[in-house]
Prior knowledge:
The structure holds two protein chains of two kinds. By secondary structure, chain A is mainly beta. Chain A has one helix at 55-58; strands at residues 44-46, 52-54, 63-68. Chain A is elongated. The mean pLDDT of chain A is 90. Chain B is of the alpha+beta class. Chain B has two domains: 2-96, Glutaredoxin (3-Layer(aba) Sandwich); 126-268, Thiol:disulfide interchange protein DsbD, N-terminal domain (Immunoglobulin-like). The interface between A and B is large, with 59 and 87 residues. Strand 3 (63-68) of chain A pairs antiparallel with strand 3 of chain B.
Amino acid sequence: MADPTYLDEFGFYSPMPLDRGARREPGADFPSGPSLGAALPPVRLPDQRGVMVDVAERRGERGAILVFHRSAYW
Amino acid sequence: MTQLVQLQQILPALRAAGYEPFAVSNDTVDRLAEFSTRYHITYPLLSDEDSAVIRAFGILNTLIEPGEGKHMRWYGIPYPGSYVTDAAGVVIDKDFHQHHARRLSGQALLHRLLGTVPEPHDGIAATTTAGEAVALTAYLADPTLRLEVISTLVCRLEIAPGLHLYADGAPEAFTAVSLEVVGHGIRVGEPRWPEPHQLEMAELGLLVPVHEGTAVVTVPITVTSEVVRLGHGLDQPAVEVVVRLRHQACDDTSCGLPTTIETTLTVPLQELVEPDGIKVYVERLAPDASAANPGGPV
């Protein structure tokens, strides 16, 4: 079974040691940004091709899904 | 990452429903380009290199100090999560979890967004147990379970014509139907039941909530590090998920005894998508492996 050195308090295993920054989990009341009913803040950023994308201009007919992730690299 | 690949897999369904996905991280454009080429990502992966948008949303991970994990660009990452907006850009749903690895699977996202549950189809394992009053079919909404990714276990109850099962809220004399899901290496959430019908029991002067016909119950489910470990492949190819249905079936005049039926679903596990960055840590673990096995090859 998994080496407990790499298991966090949630029982999650990763080969990254527990004392590394990327394995720190926030408390239960961590900030999760805009509330339900609020307007999404502006998002204007380059995409993977370097093309500037404005989310407000590219939403679908019913809306948008905006995923914030830690990294596509690790 | 798994989540980005799953979003690509449900892209046709998302667009057909009128939603456009976007993913944001502090990755550089170059790294996003490399990832999207390798995993054939066609929707926008946005590069918030200086974390300006992440800060504007108020979700910068402040547990990481500036300069930590410089090569990996740890400083500047967000607390991971997702938002759904309507066509006017108003937030109508959001999904954030205290643990960084937890998030909805592609199919679970569709289920939450559209309220739809996929039918069992080719490539998805399903199991049925037929009891006297009810047949219980269980299947997973996704083809596989992945570490900490929350999928949907679909439990379909086919209740024999003329019979009903008592739902939550029925008088205590009746056994209300309940579902239990257990298995090694899985974690499940609360089952979501459909709205019951109200059955009029004239002699008692009561309206009693019951389920009749077909009732589809959904249960959030994920697999844990007990059976899948990041960086280590799979210890086993599948997990067994046992679904138990406790119920009491009645017709208009009489009731059966409370009983339990059970069905076991074998769900395949999926190895994780492991981008280049994580390999650094897997390689560092290699000396540990040889130390644990000193007689082995060096």
